[in-house]
Amino acid sequence: MRPAPPAVAQDGPDVLLTVQVQPRASRNEIVFQPPDRIAVRLTAPPVQGAANAACCALLATRLDLPKSRIAVLRGETARRKLIRIRDAEAAHILFRLQTR
């Protein structure tokens, strides 16, 4: 079995963020789960890209970035997603995700 990728990784000028999405949750929130997992709970249903759009919007709001810099790189139809955040620093992204 392959080890899970780190939740936040620097990839050149971009940051790769691995998240576990839970659609149809009671509220939108980002939760850190030990040891190195990020769960994104969304009220949006997993149909026609609604959960993907809600995930990117929630991350953009939390990170104070425009939505155009955040994209689902892999896992558009899966719960585990790889998100690319363009022109960012991993340490800054991790800090912004951990603070409310």
What does this protein look like?
The chain is 23% helix and 34% strand. It has 100 residues and is of the alpha+beta class. It has a domain at 27-76. Strands 1, 2, 3, 4, 5 and 6 form a 6-stranded mixed β-sheet that branches. It is globular, with a radius of gyration of 13 Å. 25% of the residues are buried.
Q: Strand share of the residues?
A: 25-35%
Distance between the termini: 35 Å
Radius of gyration: 13 Å
How can the largest sheet be summarized?
Answer: 6 strands, mixed
What order do the helices and strands follow? EEEEHEEH
Uncertain runs:
none
**Structural class label:** alpha+beta
> In one word, what is the shape?
globular
Mean pLDDT metric: 91
Helix share of residues? 10-25%
Q: How many distinct helices?
A: 2
What is this entry, summarized?
This protein has two helices and six strands; from the N terminus they run ββββαββα. With 100 residues, it is α+β, with helices and mostly antiparallel strands.
Reconstruct the topology from this structure.
Elements: E1 8-11, E2 14-22, E3 29-33, E4 37-41, H1 50-63, E5 70-74, E6 80-85, H2 90-98
Distinctive features:
100 residues; six-stranded mixed sheet
